[in-house]
Specification:
alpha+beta; transmembrane; Nucleotide_cyclase; Alpha-Beta Plaits; membrane; about 350 residues
């Protein structure tokens, strides 16, 4: 299994979170008795938390439950927060004001599910702290009134629920934004087709799916004498021609076909599960549709030349396929353009 740098970074970050939890719990166990005396069951809670955090640490370090390591690190963080909350006054603790931030952090670090789980854990803890509020003291041994405890618990629960909703909404918008940026990163800004990066990404995936019974065909498409259009009519007209040709090519291809702007006036079309013979018919359709139209407000006539090739069953790469198609394209140009030319090998 391939491990990316991002996976390694996430693994190290998760380990650091759990390590911080363990160190903090150890410090709390050793230092807390010097500051105040509270019921012995708080010590047992801290020892159980320490044992769980240690188990989590070795599970993550050994690489077990990799899919759950984010959830484990969030659970470890809760093991750190909740005991500190209990021994510092429950819902009346100053620490309680930070609780509504935790579901949002869980959404950003983990996701929607993690945010919901953490939120419900916190709400349950607040309810329990309210029910057993008369047994909870702060470090100064002050018992807070029931009325104040219930009031704070109510508003804490409301803000945590709001935090869960906001975390979900924020994550959704963040996902939409990152998807949009990803699409823009793979898209040619002029024609709205895939760019070379997007082509490379899709090409590799489609080539991996090919086999002897299901070949892949590729064609390189070049607009004939396009430089003359830019020279005589300007780049604005040239850009309009490129956009209109791109739309014709895209609309004429099948749903599962992939087309990208390869550079300048060149396009590449990938035809999955298509033999060279089948691709000839598609290529001729593209050539005919382009030649039947006129382009820009000047109604300029245009034609295209297409170089066509088919994937081989063994030792095939994207670069080899593109080179064969490019060689066929230049052969077609030398033969007079406005034609479909097949690769020889």
């Amino acid at each position: 299994m391939h491990i990316t740098k991002q996976d390694q970074l996430n693994h190290m970050l998760t380990l650091r979170i759990v390590e911080l939890t363990i160190v903090t719990l150890i410090c709390a166990i050793l230092i807390r008795p010097l500051l105040s005396e509270i019921h012995p069951y708080f010590l047992w809670i801290e020892l159980i938390d320490l044992a769980l955090a240690t188990v989590f640490y070795f599970i993550i370090r050994a690489g077990f439950l990799d899919k759950w390591k984010i959830s484990i690190s969030l659970t470890a963080s809760n093991l750190l927060i909740l005991p500190l909350l209990v021994i510092s006054g429950g819902v009346n603790s100053q620490l309680a004001f930070f609780l509504p931030l935790i579901p949002i952090m869980a959404a950003l670090i983990g996701g929607r599910l993690e945010s919901l789980v953490v939120g419900f854990i916190l709400i349950t803890a607040i309810i329990l702290a309210t029910v057993f509020g008369d047994s909870i003291m702060d470090l100064n041994d002050h018992i807070y009134s029931d009325e104040k405890t219930i009031s704070r618990s109510f508003w804490l629960i409301i803000t945590i629920v709001f935090s869960m909703i906001f975390g979900r909404f924020f994550l959704q918008k963040y996902t939409e934004l990152t998807d949009q940026l990803k699409d823009e990163n793979l898209q040619d800004p002029l024609t709205k087709l895939l760019n070379r990066r997007g082509l490379s990404l899709h090409f590799e995936k489609e080539l991996d799916k090919t086999n002897t019974d299901s070949p892949l065909s590729l064609m390189i498409i070049d607009i004939d004498y396009f430089k003359k259009i830019n020279d005589f009519h300007g780049h604005n007209i040239g850009d309009l021609c490129l956009i209109e040709v791109a739309n014709i090519l895209k609309n004429a291809l099948r749903k599962n076909d992939i087309i990208a702007r390869f550079g300048g006036e060149e396009f590449i079309a990938i035809l999955p599960k298509t033999s060279k013979i089948e691709a000839i018919t598609i290529a001729e359709t593209l050539r005919r549709k382009v030649s039947e139209n006129t382009y820009s407000e000047l109604e300029l006539p245009l034609t295209i030349t297409l170089g066509l090739t088919e994937s081989k069953p063994e030792n095939e790469t994207t670069l080899k396929i593109i080179k064969r198609a490019d060689k066929a394209l230049y052969k077609g140009k030398n033969k007079g353009r406005n034609r479909v030319e097949l690769s020889e090998d």
